[in-house]
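Hi there, hope your week has been kind to you so far. Would you mind checking whether the tokens look sensible for this chain? I owe you a coffee for this, so here goes:
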Amino acid sequence: MNRRAATAIRIVLAVALPAGVLAAGFATTMSRDFTARTDVAVPARTLNHDPGRIRVAVLLGASGSVATDVLGPYDVLADSSRFDVYTVSVGTDPVALSGGLTAVPDYGVDNAPAPQIVVVPAFTDPGGDAEKPLRNFIEKVHDRGGLVMSVCAGARVLARTDVLDGRRATSFWSDIGGLRRSNPRTTWVDGVRWLRDGDVMTTAGVSSGIIGALHLVRENAGAEEARRIGERISYPGWDPTATTEESIPVRRVAAADYPYPLHATLPWFQPTYGLGLVDGTGEIDIAAAAELYGGVAFTAHVVPVAERPIVTTAHGLRLIATPIDQAHGLDRLVVPGTGQFAVDGVPVFRPRAEARPGDSAFDPILRDIAARDGHAVATTAAKYIEYPRPELPADAGTPWRIIALTAVTALLAVAPFVRRRRTTHAEATR
């Protein structure tokens, strides 16, 4: 083999080895993040629907959905007696939510009550064939005069229907450029928390769906009801009297976002966090912990655990969890809400107990991430859920795991050339 060919092979190896590690890591992260538990028998239940209330269908993608996109609006709207909220998927089999959660849909598209409002979260595969029944469901609701509300990259689902044609819309900040190119019939607007164009509402990234839902409460149940729910949630800057679009910073991908791709592609040796669930826990409390640790910051492998395999949240959503006597190897237990939950020998973190006056469910978790993994990790996580970053602790942690794995990956890139230099030196001394 001549020297040029050998050099070419080494270059290929220098690219392929770290690329293979990163690709395998990303596949592992997505598998942990969006794998539904289907090994639990879920008993059927019958829901009673009050004809005097506004029916709201919160969609659950068959391919998986972003947890806060679903649980945020669900929590807000179901807390008001003006709304009758239920979940709809392609069928009633359990489906994945980000952060390791598994939700049980109330209805499939074939037997769901016709809603006046449909909430569309981000789907893992928005244009996939598996989601076509849900896209058809959205169009039917819209054609009947219903309101369609997308959350974050849920706009990518709407972009594959005719709902946004000729309208103004917004989405997750990193998607807007691509949506402008692929869907020029829609006027895409960045720098707004939510945007209403007739019977379509779109919202910005992830946590923005909470604000969009609060505006729906204000419109349909009044400012006092919106104020009550908003004060419980404590989303920073929420103004129940505001009726116009809220401006937010226009964000772009930046070098400072490095924790996001590194943590997403290097999941090896992550700690395992048990997410301790009990009946009656608030949906936003659950979403904040699952999303931030397991779905955005990627600092831990999150495993929902409970006394029983099926947990019912504060407003009736069913989640599947690992029974605690079957959960092994937990490094930490995170207990959202006010639930009392403990595992012998496992340290417990209770975000509510660490909350400060005025905190939402996200703030203590972002501070915890900063204390354990550094300000950069917490800041990037807040950016990727489009949430105003809280004041972070002065004593920040260091992400040693990621630093070490990054160094190992870099060594894989230079290893072929190190071997080449040694071979050349040996040949020269003969």
